[in-house]
Write a structure and sequence with these properties.
alpha/beta; TIM Barrel; 7-stranded mixed sheet; globular
């Protein structure tokens, strides 16, 4: 390894270097990221900083911009053995919830944008999503299996209230009697109970609500535009009361930040009706290595060294380990302890040890009319 490169990386992670690149508070008000550095694929690197020439008056809060994207397909396939599904749908790119730890942030760099503030302010909505889904389901080669919503960005982030893409997709799946799973931080999922409850009666849907902390102040720092922890617990209860199986995801578990809450989150979610649960330890691919340190520098500078040390202890001394079988739970004594704590709490509370499978035998292939071709002109 090049020692010069190693030294440069180390210098970037020194507290004083981190502090220099953090944007002023008024520039990032109401957002999760502390910087807006350019992505790793850009030829020119861009990093904003305060040079002392800023105007005295407060900056305008960053507005959310939404651009229509025109995909050719809507179902994404994966072959990862770490997750229990092979297909997913993401109605949106980017996420306004602003969770600083979101492992989807680096995907924004493929769009020539930053994984920082761009990820939560420059969003993309997928045009004709329900139409594309209907055509893919109608393919003679298509075989049904649960489709995961929320595998990358939240399908019920705030812009869903206006764009309703997630709802249109669920309508299509409901008509086709196709199974789906949903992961969300938002109680907006309750809006679609009229669709989800009948699907649940046929064993076609289950929901997992992500509860990262029960501390409202900490939640505001980690997930500034997501619903409060209490609203998420209420969503779990309302879903289960309506017959929609709703479990809890205690994710991510962040060393020295929210790891002590694991058992409490499982207990509160169980009281709300959750009978399935899972956890994932913090993952820091690509740009998140820097963003984690920047967030700690802003909110918990006294915990920065310890949090990074514990996080690296779960990744064999590195910031991230992408190896299948380890990336979700980590390795080493600290990761082992988190896993045993989860298992013991789940067993004591009465969580199901195996996940209930969704039905695929009810699937009805949509009937899609042929594309409108240009009419042939008559010569006479």
């Amino acid at each position: 390894m090049n020692p010069t490169l190693t030294r440069a990386v180390d210098l970037r992670h020194r507290p004083e270097a981190i502090a220099e690149r953090i944007l002023p508070a008024d520039r990032r008000r109401g957002r999760g990221a502390a910087t807006n550095a350019s992505g790793r694929f850009e030829l020119q690197k861009r990093e904003e900083f305060d040079d002392g020439w800023t105007r005295d008056e407060a900056s305008e809060p960053l507005a959310t911009e939404v651009t229509w994207e025109k995909p050719k397909a809507i179902i994404t396939r994966n072959e990862s053995p770490d997750i229990g599904f092979d297909r997913s749908i993401n109605p949106y790119r980017g996420c306004e919830h602003g969770c600083f730890y979101c492992y989807a942030r680096p995907t924004h760099t493929y769009m020539g944008l930053s994984a920082g503030l761009d990820f939560e302010t420059k969003l993309f909505a997928k045009e004709r999503a329900a139409e594309l889904l209907e055509r893919e389901l109608a393919s003679p080669k298509y075989k049904p299996a649960p489709i995961a919503f929320g595998a990358n960005t939240d399908p019920y982030q705030p812009i869903e209230r206006q764009y309703r893409i997630t709802r249109s997709l669920i309508e299509t799946l409901s008509q086709a009697r196709h199974p789906l799973t949903i992961v969300t931080k938002s109680n907006l999922v309750l809006r679609d109970l009229d669709l989800l409850a009948p699907m649940a009666r046929d064993g076609l849907v289950k929901v997992f609500v992500s509860v990262t902390t029960l501390d409202r102040g900490l939640a505001r720092q980690m997930e500034p535009r997501a619903p409060t922890p209490q609203k998420r617990l209420e969503a779990i209860e309302a879903l289960n009361d309506a017959g929609v199986p709703a479990g809890v995801m205690a994710a991510p578990v962040i060393p020295a930040i929210n790891d002590e809450e694991l058992e409490t989150i499982l207990t509160r979610a169980y009281s709300a009706g959750a009978r399935e649960g899972s956890y994932v330890v913090l993952r820091l691919p690509n740009e998140l290595r820097d963003m984690f340190r920047e967030w700690l520098q802003v909110h918990y500078p006294d915990r920065l060294k310890r949090a990074v040390s514990l996080m690296q202890s779960m990744r064999e001394g590195k910031d991230y380990e992408a190896q299948w079988g380890r990336r979700m739970a980590g390795s080493g004594p600290y990761a082992w302890m988190i896993g045993r704590r989860f298992e013991m709490a789940a067993r004591r509370l009465g969580y199901h040890e195996t996940s209930r499978a969704l039905r695929t035998d009810l699937f009805r292939k949509p009937t899609v009319p042929p594309s409108n071709a240009s009419p042939q002109l008559s010569l006479f």
